[in-house]
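step=predict obj=Non-structural maintenance of chromosomes element 1 homolog n=399
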Amino acid sequence: MDDDDVAPANARVDASADVMPHGDFDLEAIYSNLKLEVPKMEKIVIQAKKFGDSHRYLINQFCLEPMMSTKKMNLLFAKHLTTVKYHKHPEVVMRIQTTPEESRELSKALVKTMNSEDGKMKKTFRPWRFVISTDEKTPNEFVTMTGCSRNSSIISEASDLTKAERALFFAIVEEMITDDGVVPMKVIQQMIQHEPHKILGAKLDIFITRMVRQKYFLMDAEKDNLEISPRTLIELDAWIRAKFSKEIKLCKFCTKIIAKPVYTAECQKCHSLFHFNCFINATNISKQQHIECVKCNEKIFLHDVKERIETKKLEAIAHSRSRGVRRRPSIPVQTVDSDDGEEESSNKNKKKKDKSEVEKTEVDEEETIEETVEEEEASQVATKKRKHKRRTIIDSDSD
């Protein structure tokens, strides 16, 4: 080491020097060099059709969150594209003007590009696929990242489920598919009492919390009912179609499974069903308040569909409550009239009276048995006395 490299002991440090610690950045200076021009939505859609770094960034985000809304996916892609590639200010993305049609076009372009190479041909190996789905209860659209095989075992392999939890998961899904896509928590608590999905109550809470966090199930605000989610429908699509081929209904527009019949539009002539969201999209495209049934050409009006959905909601609530009560035989439902109540009380009194008479009869029988035993013992004692007296008389005669 040279002598020039060693600072003298009495060296003075310039306190006026602007020293910036490592890790601190002047964000204002950085943002001042970024562009503030707002790009057009058409430019974002064009870039979505060309696989690039923004698509890789989006795939990494899906690895952390396998299901997200299309709105969030579009925002993440546009923000990464504008800041990294176009060197725009981070707030520019929030100023992009768009329409629902353009947002839907961007979502479809992103999914198509991530599922294929440059949106044209399939890759030889790709361990994932992306599927757009709609929550039947709300107009929100979601994108789910799942296995590339339609018979994916991702649920049993990637979710760290035990044998009992896996059995419980499929039992809950089966209950949902066969009954409006909803299962009361009271029914699930009855399920865990029996094999093969018998688990402890504390473990049930952990299991439900994990499944809701991973978006396999949805919990209502009151936490009384568990609902099926788009992720479960996507990952178990092949299994559901094979196992419940006769029970399930398919939307005539998108041909996907209808898990919540409450939120559907139904043709009153041929009884064809449509997802309510698919029905709304069709009315928006046609710019009319009705559509024609794809099967029988019957007109289905929007206001009629909304009225029927409200009616079905009330019926579903009543049905859900009855399911919860029906599966609890230890707590009977007391729904009797006044006359029935009097009959029930009289029957109870009669049972008490019969019981007291039986107990009294048993006591009398015990007393009778005791008296009989005492009489037999007395007779035996008298017999012994007579024998002893007879022996004494014989002995005296012999003398």
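step=describe
The mean pLDDT is 78.
step=end
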